[in-house]
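Supplementary Methods. Inverse-folding protocol.

Structures were first reduced to a discrete structure-token string of length 320. This string, shown here, constituted the complete conditioning input.
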């Protein structure tokens, strides 16, 4: 019997949710995705200190935005190293502090694509990650028209998913584990099965909505807490999985059943269209989505600032 990871790869595109290049080499995913938290974690590993130093040296200290430029270089350099190991695409995130500024998000996305192209990477191998705020989704709409593919991240409900699909997003990342965390904290008895897990239900509903209404936007489940959640979404377009959970799937040789497919769709989900007012109203009426989106942006900002603090001594000549 093949391992569950091998079985999963026959029905779902497996993406590595890490900035650890060695882990990606081990599990051989199709794609990989990073964010400020993962880049920060990787940048603190001894194995990647040379890459960090080289990225900062390329930037130099003469730029008016040296620290920002260095952080972008670090993200792109890690992305380039990852792309050497995978056949597909890398997701690189725009600074979360720009989540409520459409024009600034567009500008930063273009900059990241330019940095990749300077390294010889074509833009069709890069996904620009942008938070699923209304302003972020409008940036995605503009970027997709320029054939810059986007990964709409921090998706917690159908309003975000529907608006992103109408904007032409290439891919969305609904966060299974963070939805689960919010509901678990308010449910003393927990959930009796993975199928009753609110995070799993949310991604399944989005998958049904997209396929029923013939959207081309890819659904990539993200932020898993255990392999049960992953198995409950087997058959989803893509799943981005951390190295520790990839290891658990690799060690398990029990059969894996496909759970999501076009043959099992719930076709009763009414099509929705959003403008700024009804989008914000639906978000306001969903306490979980509102709280987790805000929290996610704050946490990414926190780790971005920590990365900047780590880079600053290198740029200013006070570090190694």
């Amino acid at each position: 019997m093949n391992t569950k990871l091998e079985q999963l790869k026959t029905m779902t595109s497996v993406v590595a949710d890490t900035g650890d290049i060695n882990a990606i080499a081990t599990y051989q995913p199709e794609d990989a995705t990073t964010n400020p938290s993962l880049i920060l974690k990787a940048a603190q590993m001894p194995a990647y200190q040379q890459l960090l130093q080289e990225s900062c040296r390329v930037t130099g200290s003469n730029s008016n935005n040296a620290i920002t430029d260095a952080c972008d270089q670090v993200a792109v350099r890690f992305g380039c190293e990852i792309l050497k190991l995978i056949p597909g695409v890398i997701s690189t995130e725009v600074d979360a502090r720009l989540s409520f500024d459409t024009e600034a998000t567009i500008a930063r996305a273009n900059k990241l694509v330019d940095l990749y192209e300077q390294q010889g990477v074509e833009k069709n191998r890069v996904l620009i990650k942008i938070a699923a705020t209304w302003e972020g989704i409008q940036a995605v709409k503009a970027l997709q028209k320029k054939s810059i593919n986007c990964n709409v991240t921090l998706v917690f409900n159908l309003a975000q998913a529907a608006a992103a699909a109408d904007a032409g997003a290439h891919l969305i990342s609904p966060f299974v584990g963070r939805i689960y965390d919010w509901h678990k904290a308010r449910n003393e008895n927990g959930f009796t099965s993975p199928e009753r897990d609110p995070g799993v239900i949310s991604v399944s509903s989005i998958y049904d909505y997209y396929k029923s209404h013939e959207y081309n936007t890819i659904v990539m489940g993200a932020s898993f807490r255990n392999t049960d959640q992953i198995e409950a979404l087997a058959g989803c377009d893509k799943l981005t999985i951390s190295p520790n959970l990839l290891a658990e799937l690799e060690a398990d040789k029990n059969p894996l059943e496909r759970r999501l497919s076009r043959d099992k769709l719930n076709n009763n989900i009414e099509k929705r269209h959003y403008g700024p007012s009804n989008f914000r109203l639906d978000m306001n009426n969903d306490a979980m989505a509102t709280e987790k989106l805000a929290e996610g942006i704050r946490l990414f900002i926190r780790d971005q600032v920590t990365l900047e603090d780590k880079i600053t001594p290198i740029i200013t000549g006070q570090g190694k």
